[in-house]
Design goal:
The protein is of the alpha/beta class. The protein has a single domain, classed as Survival protein SurE-like phosphatase/nucleotidase (Stationary-phase Survival Protein Sure Homolog, Chain: A, 3-Layer(aba) Sandwich). The strands form 2 sheets. Strands 3-4-2-1-5-6-7-11-8 form a 9-stranded mixed β-sheet, with helices on both faces. It has a two-stranded antiparallel sheet with strand order 9-10. The protein is globular and about 65 Å long. Its EC number is 3.1.3.5. Belongs to the SurE nucleotidase family. InterPro entries: SurE (IPR030048), SurE-like_Pase/nucleotidase (IPR002828), SurE-like_sf (IPR036523). Its main location: cytoplasm. GO terms for molecular function: 5'-nucleotidase activity; metal ion binding; nucleotide binding.
Amino acid sequence: MSRSGEPRFLLTNDDGIESPGFRALYDALSSIGEVIAVAPADDRSSVGRSLSGHVTVEDHELGYAIDGTPADCTVVGLESLCPDVDMVLAGCNKGANLGAYVLGRSGTVSAAVEAAFFDVPAIAVSQYVPAGSGEAYREFEVTEDDYREVTRAARYLAEHAEEAGVFDTAEYLNVNAPWPDGSPAPMEVTRPSTLYEMTAERDGDAIVLRDGIWERMKEGSVPDPVGTDRRAVVEGRVSVSPLTAPHTTRHHDALDALAESYADEEGIDGNAG
């Protein structure tokens, strides 16, 4: 906690420190605590957990602008610039981060994952945009006011989740809000959808990769089951997925048997070492 007793938040993102979504979340969090911005100086979308190894830091009116990735920002923030924060938030991202396959690609989500390895609670915050994909998405203008739904949810969770014990089992939350329709959206606890619709089509010497799910979301036709993140957002609810950062492991009898037979087949002394 800060000297005033208010929580201290490290705020980062992947759209860049000057993006309207970042400012919207900064202002929302400032109403409940102290906010220190440690965010990329420019757009670093979809870089996952890439690390630069060496970054430059510039003072900014909101905190610090980093010539680096969202994961860089979390590391340099927690290790150097503001190590005594109570929580890391990443966002607000223009565009949803939904589905299990997206988690590793998203710079927004990756900043929250990085915080989990420091044992610092984290929330990734994204706003769904009903624009499909490609050029239509890039040209879709989103103002600070358009983030009102997701900032409302993020502020509420930042204020109450830790005290409620949410982070006793979850290491970070992935929050996605539907496009605002004029009335507050309810909140639903979800799991990431496993539906995957990536395609790769040959076009002469090039191959075009497309994610078909965004057009289906725009049409409202996603087949995701009830309880998944995309289904909640398409139906007008704020999705909150409680997640853990390390990859889970399960013991497999079949793999155990292969490991035991490896020495015999390869002529290795099983007692070595």
